[in-house]
Amino acid sequence: MDAEAAELKVLDTAERLFDERGVQAVGMDALRTASGVSLKRLYQLFPSKDVLVEAVLRRRDGAVRDAVAAHGARVADGPYERALAVFDWLADWFAEPDFRGCAFINAFGELGGVAPNVAGLARDHKEALRGYFAAQTDALGAPPALADQLALLANGAMVVAGITGSPEPAAQAKAAARVLLDASQP
């Protein structure tokens, strides 16, 4: 297995195990066993578990940003619909059988106090979601605070869906988002 294939295998395995068990519960030896990549190669690719966690989060960040934007562009005609489409995307994500909550919220909860880079990645990811909402609400001429409120609804839905194992919080958050969006229109 070449270095690129080994890196992808480790990242895929780490993402799956971190989602299933949590970051702190997964050691490098478990990653070696599950990925089939030797411990020597694993440490060549990722000199520490912190480096690996950050790489997993960076990759997830890009994937989520791209998926949300692509979903909105595919299903919505304008900014109002694109803002609401985020909650439909969340509902689909929450309904996946392996959904265990937001990786950024979970990693921050586990490591945010002791891993400043993880905390920074989580903050940047959440700011990107708020930024997506801000692009939509700005296009509507809505007050700037609306983007914060929509992001709060989305993030709250992520937490509740992760805890309850139900996709229903996405629909509840979407209903609340619609009320806020409608109230912001002249």
Descriptive notes:
This protein has 186 residues and is mainly α. The protein contains 9 helices and no strands. The chain has helices at residues 3-21, 28-35, 39-45, 49-75, 79-94, 103-111, 116-140, 145-164, 168-184. Helix 4 (49-75) crosses helix 5, helix 5 packs antiparallel against helix 9 and helix 7 packs across helix 8. The longest helix has 27 residues, at 49-75. The radius of gyration is 18 Å and the shape is elongated. The chain starts with a helix and ends with a helix.
Structure in a nutshell:
The chain has 186 residues and is mainly alpha-helical. Helix content is 80%, strand content 0%. It starts with a helix and ends with a helix.
Q: Please state the overall shape, judged from the principal axes of the Cα atoms.
A: elongated
Cα Rg: 18 Å
N/C terminus separation: 60 Å
| Helical coverage, percent range | over 70%
Helix run count: 9
- Poorly predicted runs: none
Tell me the fraction of residues in β-strands, as a range: under 5%
Q: How can the largest sheet be summarized?
A: none
Average of the residue pLDDT scores = 96
Given helix and strand content, the structural type is: mainly alpha
